[in-house]
Amino acid sequence: MTPNRIQEYKDSFDINQDGILTSEEIEQGKIILELELKEEKAEAHKRMTWVSLIAMIVFTGFLFSPVISVSKVNALGEIFGLFYLAQASVIGFYFGATAYMTRR
After folding, report:
1. What angle do CA 43, 47, 50 make, to 5 degrees?
2. pTM of the model as a whole
3. For residues 29 and 22, what is the distance between their CA atoms, to the nearest angstrom?
4. What's the CA gap between 44 and 59, in Å, rounded?
5. Of 52, 60, 62, 45, whose CA–CA distance to 87 is shortest?
6. Rg (CA), the chain
7. Within 13 Å, how many C-alpha atoms sit on residue 25's CB side?
8. Is the separation of the CB atoms in 16 and 9 below 8 Å?
9. Secondary structure element (H or E) that encloses residue 92, with its range
């Protein structure tokens, strides 16, 4: 860690801004940092889920458009099925993890 980054952490953990870090302030800072990291992780999961859902919708619209011929769709049908399965797995994992975390 660079000295600037260490100073940033020290300043953010010093709740009463007196320049002295107590063990209580360090513990509170750790809890706050942990909560912020969990929040960022949850937001990243939510963004991945939205991207997967939008990709499925756009891909479906693309398949039904006249851009791709029916013969190509039939030839690549198994690969398309894997794409939908992968995207649905991402969405399902997000909802499953969210449900699990609310029960915990």
Report:
1. 140
2. 0.68
3. 11
4. 22
5. 52
6. 23
7. 14
8. no
9. helix 77-103
For 16-72, how does the pLDDT look when each residue is reduced to its tens digit (9 = 90+)?
Answer: 777 776 778 778 878 888 888 989 988 999 999 999 999 999 999 988 888 888 888
Looking at per-residue confidence, does 71 or 11 come out higher?
A: 71
Does residue 91 contact residue 52 with C-beta atoms inside 8 Å? Answer: yes
Residue in 47, 17, 15 with CA at minimum distance from that of residue 33: 15
What pLDDT shows up at residue 87?
95
pLDDT at 65 (0 to 100): 87
Indicate the residue type of 25.
E
Residue 72's domain spans which residues? 3-103
* Total count of domains within the chain: 1
CB 25 within 8 A of CB 13: yes
Q: Which amino acid would we find at residue 16?
A: N
Q: Tell me which H or E stretch contains 32.
A: helix 23-64
Residue 69 phi, psi dihedral angles, 5° rounding: -75, 155
